[in-house]
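re: that chain from earlier
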Amino acid sequence: MASRPGRLDLAWHSTEPNRSTQQPVRLAVDCRAIGQVDIITGTSSFDRDLNRTNTADTPDAVLPRPNDDVRADAAHVQAVLPPAS
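^ sequence. v structure.
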């Protein structure tokens, strides 16, 4: 991502994804050291079909998709990760 002057683009990749197949998981990031945080987009990799996987024959079966459950307030970012994401 290319940042504009005075702006920091923050992206994260969870090394501990939501392994629950039933419940969403809340993720909270403390960004006070950065200052004011604004959310522009959120994405998560998941599919409602929990048996679908990427394979050599179907490498794009499960792709990142918009996650509308990402919020920012002052210097905190909160997201809800869907089941098995």
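The mean pLDDT is 80.
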